Backbone:
């Protein structure tokens, strides 16, 4: 009777420990899933080869198998290579702690890479339109409304009414609304004294304070303000002074 009770008690303890180990394993699997996701995110941010750094499959491993005794096992039992339940639980705990530390390190690294990428994207480059043509250059020109020789602070790109206008660099929207002569205008501050303006819009798609990334749609092309037809008037300011956008337009994205 006592032996049966002892066996029953051992069975209860074994099931309890098994349940605890199962929960621990589920926690470890969740950590692995998160590390895989972080790895893919870091690979993408760093521009690495996704085929070389494939986090969706098992890592390529190999080498000869050389059995090693577990620490703490009695030397008098060389044939008993099975670790104790306590030993397995300890190893689970160490793995859990290691994964948590790696997640924290990966999070910091992802933040640094994201900041670096954002800085790289904050330099204006390319055109603020997907399709269209340059209808007026920067500098002196014959004003299309007055017919007089006048200075033009930006570059005009003509296109279809309602066409998408894109941010040429990442930054924060510092103006979104009507402005004398410009009609509906969006201004984006990019840091380091640089800002860009997009004017005569039919509709602004962003608000002051919005964070925009290069290529985001910030407005729709129109002919508001002092304008003769659908186009976007594009300006680049450096330390408060308008500069020729041509240099930035001709740049390729890094």
Residues:
């Amino acid at each position: 009777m006592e032996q049966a009770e002892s066996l029953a008690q051992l069975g209860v303890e074994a099931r309890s420990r098994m349940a605890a180990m199962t929960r621990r394993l589920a926690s470890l699997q969740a950590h692995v899933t998160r590390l895989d996701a972080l790895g893919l995110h870091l690979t993408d941010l760093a521009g690495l080869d996704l085929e070389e750094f494939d986090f969706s499959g098992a890592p390529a491993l190999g080498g000869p198998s050389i059995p090693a005794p577990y620490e703490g096992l009695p030397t008098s039992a060389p044939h008993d290579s099975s670790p104790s339940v306590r030993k397995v639980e300890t190893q689970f705990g160490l793995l859990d702690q290691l994964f948590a530390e790696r997640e924290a390190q990966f999070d910091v690294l992802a933040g640094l890479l994201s900041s670096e990428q954002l800085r790289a994207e904050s330099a204006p480059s390319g055109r603020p339109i997907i399709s269209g043509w340059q209808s007026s250059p920067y500098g002196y020109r014959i004003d299309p409304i007055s017919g007089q020789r006048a200075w033009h602070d930006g570059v005009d790109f003509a296109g279809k009414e309602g066409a998408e206008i894109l941010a040429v660099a990442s930054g924060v929207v510092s103006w979104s609304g009507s402005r004398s002569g410009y009609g509906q205008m969006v201004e984006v501050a990019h840091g380091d004294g640089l800002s860009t303006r997009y004017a005569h819009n039919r509709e602004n798609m962003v608000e002051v304070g919005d964070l925009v990334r290069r290529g985001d749609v910030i407005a729709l092309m129109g002919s508001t303000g002092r304008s003769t037809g659908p186009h976007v008037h594009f300006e680049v300011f450096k330390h408060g002074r308008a500069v020729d956008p041509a240099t930035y337009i001709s740049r390729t994205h890094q």
Confidence is low (pLDDT under 50) at residues 70-82. The longest strand covers residues 194-204. Residues 176 and 207 are 6 Å apart (CA to CA). Residues 2-46 form the longest helix (45 residues).
